[in-house]
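S1.2 Input.
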Amino acid sequence: MIRQIAAIAFLLAGTSVAMAEDHSGDVRANRSTIVNRHFYYNSQLCSSGPIAQVKLKKEPKHGSVKIVRSVWVPEKGKCKGKKFKGVDIIYTPKRGYRGPDEFSTKYSMPKYANRSTLRYLHDNYKMQVK
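S1.3 Output.
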């Protein structure tokens, strides 16, 4: 029973919501911008969760996307200073481009902390390059 409760708490404590999401906002021209980060961890035990397997589903027309492994370190709270591994989604517009652009990603992650069942999710990104 405690193991099941711990597994549920582990999944609920993620910093990224496990569902399809729409993201929108402004990004600066001629610069790379982190438009999303996927990190999963248990905020009570300060233990790392699974690293999402992220892939590009639809390419942007006016730029490029890099999906890179990264490390996040909380600056406050119980887990302050602890390192958690995850994934950054980085968008770079074509040099000189200004205007709208969009792309989408798909990713998978374990549905349960101690099982091999996967959930397949996607995110849509709509941004204005300024």
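S1.4 Remarks. The mean pLDDT is 83.
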